[in-house]
Amino acid sequence: MEEEIEAVVGLGPRGFGPHVSKDVRFAIAKSSALGPYRDACLLLAQNQVQLLWDFFEEIYGQGCWQDKDFMEDVLKHHPELRIRVKRGIRGQEYLRPG
To answer: DSSP string spanning 46-98?
Structure first.
């Protein structure tokens, strides 16, 4: 497992993709030593979401995300963007791809 973590971290934030096993993801999330790597992955993901947001608004117009039909069409053609949220008994949120 340590070798897998080193391999993923060695690739940088762009190497952290869907191919990374759940065990390795969990280990990276819980490791305080890998905090800067985790922060870099989060920043990269936020930037990618903003680029996608800007791209669609450039094509379909400002505020297209507010249209429910537009959102359903986007999620129909890009199911990997759908996120399922489950809430625990104490209000905590568990996110996972839909």
So the answer is: HHHHHHHHHHHHHHH-TTGGG-HHHHHHHHHH-GGG-EEEEE-TTS-EEEEE-
Chunked mean pLDDT (size 10), the chain, 98 residues: 82 78 82 83 84 89 89 86 76 63
Range of the domain at 50: 1-61
Residue type for 24, please? V
DSSP state of 15: G
Whether 42 and 32 have beta carbons less than 8 Å apart is answered as no
Phi, psi at residue 31, to the nearest 5°? Answer: -80, 120
Q: Domain check: are 25 and 51 in the same one?
A: yes
